Amino acid sequence: MSVAVGPEVAQALEAGRPVVALESTIFSELGLPSPHNRDALDRCLRAVKAGGTTPAVTAVLDGTPTVGVDETVHEMICGPARKVAARDLAVAAAQGWSFGATTVSASLALSASTGVEVFATGGIGGVHPRASESGDISADLDALARYPVVTVSAGAKVFLDLGRTVEYLETASVPVLGWHCDEFPAFHARSSGIPLTHRVSSADEVAAIARAHWQLGGGGLLVVAPVPLDDAIELEEVLAAARRATEGSEAEGITGSAVTPAVLRRLMDLTDGRALRANLGLAENNAGIAAAIAAALAEQARQ
Ligand code: PSU
Ligand code: MN
């Protein structure tokens, strides 16, 4: 099996120019409803390019894990998909899945295998509520710990157990860096009230921390950025909606990898589309920050 690298991404990597990977689950119908998913993809691509950086959308296409899909398949990326986490990559490749939408964990594995150092998403997966009974802890967390890539996210999705998610990241030795913030963001809301140990205020600072972490044999780093003010929802409001969305999906007996897409969809309905607006705004914001960090890493490598 080989991992395909898109021509523009390959050229950029070869020349030491900055690249930002983007996952495809968020842009597929598993992540956002049509036609908003297409809008989200276009906004994220624009934000990465505006930072002078080459975007690399990851996906499995006709059994080939790909970093930097061609524009001609963007239409397909925004359609129905099978979810591909890191554990599913080999299966999707060997069985020749026509379109597999890569999650954070799969995108991190693919980024690391092709030398892409920075990755942007909306919100990472984490520890689900009542995980002590269900055992549902996202593979995103172990992938963050393992692969030497900087991930930019708006914290983790609000319906997760954010306190335990932050504890897990500490246990796994993932530095969590607050981007101009002192508390872990709660995806749609700017803050969860959970304090962070580290605050950063520039891309150069993140790049220096990442290089030092990697010199010490460390894996991934997580930069967390709050949703832009204009798109944010109040924490109490979104928590109440998240509780209802989770109860609804549990009542339907939804389990495993179907949980996250089902809860996200309910949340959008319960907030009259404001969760959707927040989701688009934060994804674009994260892509722009990731572009700046990738540019700083590339600049530091030249010196
Ligand atoms: N955040 C979003 N939308 C999404 C996801 C995250 O705003 O669709 C996806 C990401 O691909 C993430 C995945 O990696 O959900 C986590 O799924 P799970 O909880 O099953 O590990
Ligand atoms: Mn899960």
Please describe the structure with a list of short key phrases separated by commas or semicolons.
Indigoidine synthase fold, 303 residues, binds manganese (II) ion, eleven-stranded mixed beta sheet, alpha/beta, 14% strand, binds pseudouridine-5'-monophosphate
Q: Would you kindly provide a written description of the structure presented here, covering whatever features stand out?
A:
Strand 3 and strand 4 (64-67) form a beta hairpin. This protein has helices spanning 7-15, 36-50, 74-77, 89-94, 104-114, 131-134, 139-146, 162-171, 203-215, 235-251, 259-270, 274-302; strands at residues 4-5, 19-22, 54-61, 64-67, 82-84, 99-102, 118-120, 150-153, 176-179, 198-200, 221-224. It has one domain (4-302): 3-Layer(aba) Sandwich (Indigoidine synthase fold). Strands 1, 2, 3, 4, 5, 6, 7, 8, 9, 10 and 11 form an eleven-stranded mixed sheet that branches. It is of the alpha/beta class. Manganese (II) ion is lined by residues 136, 138, 257, 259.
Beta-strand level of the residues, as a percent range?
A: 5-15%
For the record, give the distance between the C-alpha atoms at the N and C termini, rounded to a whole number.
36 Å
Helix content: 40-55%
For the report, how would you describe the main beta sheet?
11 strands, mixed
Please name the CATH topology: Indigoidine synthase fold
Helix/strand/pairing category: alpha/beta
Whole-angstrom Rg: 18 Å
Average pLDDT level:
96
The CATH class assignment is Alpha Beta
Give the name of the CATH superfamily: Indigoidine synthase domain
Which residues sit in consecutive blocks of at least 5 with pLDDT less than 50?
none
Shape, principal axes of CA atoms: globular
- List of distinct ligands in this structure: pseudouridine-5'-monophosphate, manganese (II) ion
Architecture in CATH?
3-Layer(aba) Sandwich
Count the E strands: 11
Number of helices: 12
* Count of discrete domains: 1
